[in-house]
Design brief:
Elements: H1 3-17, H2 20-42, H3 51-74, H4 78-92, H5 101-115, H6 123-134, H7 140-151
Helix pairs in contact: 1-2, 2-4, 3-4, 5-6, 5-7, 6-7
Length: 152
């Protein structure tokens, strides 16, 4: 099932089950996707974002909520931090499985080989290959230093 269809089905299920928090988060996801559709139409595109674009939107939403939760925790607003963490759980249901330790290392080595990278100057090429293949499956903020170490 296409990611957009899965989101619509989950939205309908949440409405039927009267799950207010889940419904709210799913509506936020749909709003973000529709915003991207509209922006794409304005740029002369067809106005329908792909699954990889939706995955990128979801990844961005997770990062935003992680940052917000951290700020709320530092400010002593634990109930708001908990709400952000609950939203993250709902969003992550639609993201691909996150790669772990050895899988990330193998993906980095394969990307270095594919990009023909030999020095730190080729880091951008390697990151572009990784982002093209593994969007939503790894934290690129954490991957960057690992790529740098392997290329140094």
């Amino acid at each position: 099932m296409v990611l957009r269809d899965r989101l619509q089905a989950a939205l309908k299920d949440a409405m039927r089950a009267r799950e207010a928090e889940r419904l709210s988060t799913l509506r936020l996801i749909n709003a973000a996707i529709k915003d991207r559709d509209i922006a794409q139409r304005g740029e002369g595109g067809e106005g329908v974002v792909s699954d990889s674009d939706i995955t990128a939107i979801l990844s961005k939403m997770v990062k935003q909520r992680q940052e917000s939760a951290r700020v709320y925790e530092e400010g002593g607003r634990l109930e708001l931090a908990e709400k952000e963490l609950d939203e993250i759980k709902v969003i992550e249901e639609f993201l691909p499985r996150q790669l772990e330790g050895e899988e990330v290392d193998a993906a980095i080595k394969a990307a270095i080989t594919e990009a023909g990278a030999s020095s730190i100057r080729d880091m951008g090429k390697v990151m572009a290959v990784l982002k093209g293949k593994y969007t939503g499956q790894m934290d690129f903020g954490a991957v960057g230093p690992r790529v740098k170490d392997l290329l140094a």
